[in-house]
Specification:
The chain has about 375 residues and is an all-alpha fold. It folds into two domains: about 150 residues, no CATH class; about 220 residues, no CATH class. The protein has 15 helices and no strands. It is globular, with a radius of gyration of 22 Å. The termini are far apart. The C terminus is likely disordered.
Length: about 375
């Protein structure tokens, strides 16, 4: 359904995103070198004089000064402006995907038809937007650090994980839908054949039907969803790293990659990060091929591919979900697939060791 009045929000959302991008620039510049985010205030790295507030406006400040310090006129990188621009468009894309296109199939037009018809976003809608914006901003900051220094700083991922766990009890599945919208299912076969699972911030709960001890929409369910997402995200890359390192005889992934997935899992749930991990292989191969062709045998930052894989997984869930539903709610199939994947990865590592291929790390993203 078309809501023409919602387009008036795009400019304010872009401004908010560019302001967040300005803060992300501070995080990416200071956190890897273990400097405070609050002190000293923004200053020129050449003359060390403070930057005036109107020179520090996102995007406008850079264009106004033509990329130079307002005091000593020393040029500085355009990366600062492009991060602000990209973050602004990231927020706009999130807004469009959620409310204008409803890509994930939340059903905003059914839940809040009257409000959105007149260009109003309900509080539950803003809650979803803010939660996902916090998640994506942390993923972006971690990815930029990985690209810049092949490290994903632990303070970023730990902070993001704590945000995810703190918000999970207040946005428990099927939020923003009402708990009464959850279908009553006797067996998981009924779910596979007939029922649609309501979509929340986390598309699915950690198990369905929801165990009888818990209620849909309860803070206990939300907290368990966040904790299990965090655990699976943290263990997933660590298991892959250990198996590959043991079989190949060299480190294959950085610990920082595991921390990034831990953070994503706290926001999005264990199913999304599991699928996102496999989807990240495609952008990882493309980036890795380009890196080898243009820069030779250099370690590859895998954090951006993991972050992109999680976002793609979340927004392609209406298509991916029905295909993986039989797997994710059947523990025997899950176990078989998990063991098979580990054996295949181990066999691949052994094959690469004996073939004597080039010793390129997938990533050197080690948490500081």
């Amino acid at each position: 359904m078309d809501f023409p009045w919602l387009w008036i929000w795009l400019l304010p959302v872009f401004i908010l995103g560019s302001a967040v991008g300005s803060f992300i620039n501070v995080v990416v510049t200071r956190i890897p070198t273990e400097r405070s985010l609050l002190w000293p205030s923004s200053h020129c790295l050449s003359c060390f004089r403070p930057i005036r507030w109107f020179h520090n406006l996102p995007i406008i400040g850079y264009l106004w000064l033509r990329g130079k310090c307002g005091n000593c006129h020393t040029p500085y990188s355009s990366r600062y402006m492009w991060v602000e621009v990209c973050t602004g468009f990231l927020f706009v894309g999130l807004f469009v995907a959620e409310f204008l296109a409803d890509v994930r199939g939340v059903g905003w037009s059914k839940l809040f038809l009257y409000e959105m018809k007149f260009g109003l976003i309900p509080l539950r809608g803003w809650a979803v937007f803010i939660c996902l914006a916090i998640c994506f901003s942390h993923l972006l900051a971690a990815s930029l650090c990985d690209i810049q220094s092949l490290e994903i700083p632990l303070p970023i991922t730990i902070t993001g994980t704590l945000f995810g766990l703190a918000l999970a009890p207040f946005t428990a599945w099927p939020f923003p839908s009402a708990p009464l919208s959850v279908p009553q299912i006797a067996t998981w076969e009924d779910l596979l054949r007939k029922s649609q699972i309501p979509v929340g911030i986390m598309p699915w709960p950690f198990w369905f039907p929801v165990p009888w001890e818990l209620e849909a929409g309860s803070w206990q369910l939300g907290l368990i969803d966040g904790i299990l997402g965090m655990i699976v995200g943290a263990l997933l890359c660590r298991v892959v790293r250990w198996v590959y390192s043991f079989s190949r005889g060299m480190e294959g992934m950085g610990v920082g990659d595991s921390d990034l997935m831990m953070m994503a899992g706290a926001f999005l749930g264990w199913q999304v990060v599991l699928v996102g991990f496999f989807l990240s292989v495609v952008p990882g191969i493309l980036v890795g091929t380009g890196q080898i062709l243009f820069k030779g045998t250099q370690s590859l930052p895998f954090g951006p591919s993991l972050a992109l894989g999680c976002v793609i997984s979340l927004y392609s869930w209406p298509w991916i979900g029905p295909m993986v539903k039989p797997l994710f709610f059947e523990p025997v199939l899950m176990g078989i697939l998990g063991i098979s994947s580990i054996l295949i990865l181990g066999a691949s590592g052994i094959a690469f060791r004996f073939l004597g291929g080039p010793s390129n790390d997938i990533s050197s993203g080690v948490a500081s």
